Amino acid sequence: MYCLQWLLPVLLIPKPLNPALWFNHSMFMGFYLLSFLLERKPCTICALVFLAALFLICYSCWGNCFLYHCGGAPLPDSAHDPSIVGT
Q: Which ranges does the record mark as transmembrane (predicted)?
C-alpha cells in the first residue's frame, strides 16, 4: 500500500477554473499517471483502489474529474469572474 501515497493526492488536485486550461490539465494528469504506472509499477491492489476511486469521482460528476467535464455540471461562481479567468 506504499504506492497509494503517490496516487491518491492526484485525485485532490483541483481542475483549473479557466475552461481553456482543462485540456492541458487533463493531458498533464494523464501523462503523469501513465509515467507513474510505467516507472513505479504499483501493486495490483493499489492500482485497483486508485482506478475505483477515479471511476467513482468521474461517475458522480462532482466536477473534480480530470478526464472530462460533465455536461450538466455548472462552472463554479468564480469561473465567471474576469479578474480570475482573465489572468
A: 20-38, 45-69
